Amino acid sequence: MIDLRSDTVTRPSPAMLAAMTSAETGDDVWGDDPTVLRLQARVAEQAGKEAGLFFPSGTQSNLAALMAHCARGDEYIVGQAAHTYKYEGGGAAVLGSIQPQPLENSEDGTISLERVAAAIKPIDDHFARTRLFALENTIGGKVLPAAYVAEATQFAHGRGLATHLDGARVFNAVVDSNQSLMALTDGFDSVSICFSKGLGTPVGSVLVGSKALIGSAHRWRKMLGGGMRQAGVLAAACLYALDHNVARLADDHANAARLAAGLAQIDEVKVASQATNMVFAQFPQADCAPLEAWLKERGILTQMLYASRFVTHLDVSAADIDTFVAAVKGYFKR
Ligand SMILES: *Cc1c(COP(=O)(O)O)cnc(C)c1O
Q1: Which of 18, 43, 223, 280 could cross-link 272 (Cys pair, CB 3.0–4.6 Å)?
Q2: Helix, strand or coil for residue 273?
Q3: Could you say which EC number(s) this protein's record lists (predicted)?
């Protein structure tokens, strides 16, 4: 199957599995797993932060970070389109007793700093205490403008807020913008990075930040059920991904551009945007369900909506993109 629904669908390659089966392990709840320790140290160093912490998922990594920054009754400012706000089951509110203050994202994924300024609550018993400003990079596949990130993080710190980056796909931003991970995470007090997206591991995220913040997140991770034992088998996949699957994200970006260019040739389809490994396109509403079924019969998995998202990854080749585009053309010509 050619699966364009997400970059989470990648399967571990034989070489990645070999790295996993030969991993040196220990009990990571006891801090004894050398492979986990190596991964945490490596990601922290590469991001220019003091410490790292391995999590089973990005959702849990983001949540533990929010809970480390914010206490009960505190508030975090976040984009309406942000994963932490919109796609994590409301965990910050449910499990953290943290009030989200969502603000509209602009087309480029930024949040206007005037709006942020207006949303920061005065210190007054009527209000939640605004503690944190969270951004996401990439967001909807788009790389946040570097100048904006620098301004936004300085602004937040100037107003006494901490800063968190949901960098689930920050390595896509690294490859696309040709900036270092350290440059992209500069200005953030914490950064969560997913290995189970374009980097192609079965599971795993790493949160980085100061020793104090990571110490606090470590306690929340245990409480949230994320303390894992011989997690080195999973961390080994992440180390393998750092060595082998970062530079190749450029192929995914080229394939996404190829997909967008292919769809743009079809009159019935309107390509809304393409950035890094994502393409957003609109299809006539009445065609969505039959087109999805048509593609599935031809071995192509998509989620066809009026505004559809296609995601490229290491299990999708340029030839697969051509197969997909030809199948969409075939549908509209039938
Ligand atoms: C996938 C993702 C996460 C975390 O997802 P998990 O499936 O819990 O690992 C967080 N933020 C963004 C932007 C994501 O795309």
Answers
A1: 280
A2: strand
A3: 4.1.2.48
Q: What are the sequence ranges of the domains in the chain?
A: 14-245, 248-333
Ligand 1 pocket test, candidate residues 6, 57, 59, most atoms within 8 A of CB:
59
Residue-wise pLDDT for 211-237, tens only, equals 999 999 999 999 999 999 999 999 999
Per-residue pLDDT tens for 103-151? 999 999 999 999 999 999 999 999 999 999 999 999 999 999 999 999 9
How far is the first Cα of the chain from the last one, in angstroms, to the nearest whole number? 22
Chain CA centroid to CA 117, Å: 26
Ligand 1 and 59: CB distance under 6 A? yes
Alpha-carbon distance 51 to 262, whole Å? 44
Q: 158 alpha carbon to ligand 1 midpoint, in Å?
A: 29
Tell me, in angstroms, the distance from the centre of ligand 1 to residue 268's CA.
32
Question: What fold, for 14-245?
Answer: Aspartate Aminotransferase; domain 2 (3.40.640)
Residues of the chain with pLDDT under 70: none
Give bridge partners of residue 52 from the DSSP assignment: 208
Residues 6+ apart with CB under 8 A from 66: 76, 84, 92, 96, 98, 132, 134, 164
Q: Is residue 205 in contact with ligand 1, taking CB distance under 6 Å?
A: yes
Q: Catalogue the E-assigned strands of 137-288.
A: 162-166, 190-194, 205-209, 270-275, 278-282
Ligand 1 neighbourhood includes 262 CB (under 6 angstroms): no
**Is 194 a pocket residue for ligand 1 (Cβ < 6 Å)?**
yes
CATH class of the region 248-333 = alpha beta
